[in-house]
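Appendix B. Chain record.
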Amino acid sequence: MCHLLQGWREFYIYKHQSIARAVSAVKEFVDLCTQNKSLEAGYYLKAVSDLHSYRLGFKDVQVFLFAKRCSVLLNLIGLHYCLVQLEITPSEVMEALCRSQVSEREIYVRWFKLGRWFYGFRLQDEHHSRKISLGELVMGKDDEVLGVLNRGAVHEVIRVHITQVNSETTVSNSVASGDD
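Structure tokens predicted for this chain:
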């Protein structure tokens, strides 16, 4: 019996370490692609896809990505993975975010849409910006943001930026630049 127990422990430790290495690779990728605390949607979606390829479970995401020591961008990637890939209910994800004390963290999502055609003329490109907390995003306060994050830069949306909000970031900078 003792031999079986030791084998189980070794397997658990091995599994935990392999998941830690996989998540570490995603973290390094995100750090490499992040410029000025901002991430392009293509890199964001690749990170979510990488998590899926590593076959992380909900508990793994809670331990490795919903931690306060992780950036809000990594929290968001874990959140997106749980909602879209693992199909975890929003209430369960919200509970995990609250338990980890990261639900109030905020992000800016900015996206640019091609101008519409109007009687043969193309109107100006549209710039959209939303500031939203992870908790609000999970609970569906702004479905448009989650839709843009899920699609990325496709169809009429030509560019998507995700920026972490922290104490140094001011809303007045965003308002002065003409954001919504």
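Further analysis of this model is presented in Appendix C.
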